Amino acid sequence: MTSTAFRFIALVTARACLLALVASLALPPTLAADPAEDEHGDHEHGVGLHGGLIVPLGRDSYHIEPVFEADGVLRLYLLGSDETRIHETQRQTLTAYVKPAGGRETVSMQIAADPQEGDADDKTSRFTGTLPESLRGIQVDVTIPNLRIEGERFRVGFTSAPPPEHAAMPAALADDESAKLFLTPGGKYTEADIAANGRLTAMRKFKGFQAKHDANPKPGDRLCPISETKANPLCAWVIGGKTYEFCCPPCVEEFVRMAKETPDDVKDPEAYVKR
């Protein structure tokens, strides 16, 4: 073998060793990025108590629940790593960049600290802003590049509307309307049903209930009669002497109203099963 061939083999061997050394020193791919660069997290969570989709922050270190209300009002509820617990952070004004979903041109808006009852004097667990009029009533993408929590910076991104497969959830009733609906019989909803349900409204019976709307039920799973997402056996209600399962209390309200006003539309529980 010639000296030139030996030099070539030595060069290739040295290069392979160098690449192996670099690979062994590389940071493992599972290390979290800087929180300011973590926009969406890796997955979506369920629907929160206020009706908004739960968005994870910083690998589930925190969560926010964005809620789009009437007249373009946007509220952000800050939650802890356990998304059932409220989390407070320092008061601050957030700048959000909003655009039509899938669009390119953004409009900036301010989202100010809006403390809830019980928040510490210098803290807030809620932020509130108002969408520009041109972006109300349509699906929008929202990006907040700088949210500070516990001294860390997070980049937040979410969309105003749930995925298409999610059915729209009815709004909860006011207390007096709810009492009238649940505590008076009518149609297929009987006095015996009222007693079986503990003479309570759905919002009172399921106070603190965490809805997890699963839009991908498996065959054989029970379905919420209203949203057609996977039903939760912990959110059950007796109607016409039969037990129905729902995804959340507002859907119970809607179904009881149907049982009273259009009873012929109410099917047996076995009809609300994923085929």
**Major sheet description:** 8 strands, antiparallel
Mean pLDDT: 81
- Largest sheet, spatial ordering of strands: 1-2-3-8-6-5-9-10
Question: Can you identify the CATH class of the largest domain?
Answer: Mainly Beta
CATH architecture of the largest domain: Sandwich
β-strand amount? 25-35%
Give a brief outline of the structure.
This protein has 275 residues and is α+β, with helices and mostly antiparallel strands. It is 20% helix and 26% strand. It contains 5 helices and 12 strands.
What does this structure look like?
The chain has 275 residues and is an alpha+beta fold. The chain folds into two domains: 35-159, Sandwich (Immunoglobulin-like); 175-271, no CATH class. It contains five helices and twelve strands. It has helices at residues 3-25, 175-182, 191-196, 202-205, 249-261; strands at 55-57, 62-68, 73-79, 89-90, 94-100, 107-113, 123-124, 126-130, 140-149, 152-159, 232-239, 242-246. The strands form three sheets. The protein has an eight-stranded antiparallel beta sheet with strand order 1-2-3-8-6-5-9-10, with no helix packed on it. A two-stranded antiparallel ribbon has the order 4-7. The longest helix is centred in the N-terminal third of the chain and has 23 residues, at 3-25. It is elongated, with a radius of gyration of 26 Å. The model is unreliable at 2-44 and 162-168 (pLDDT under 50).
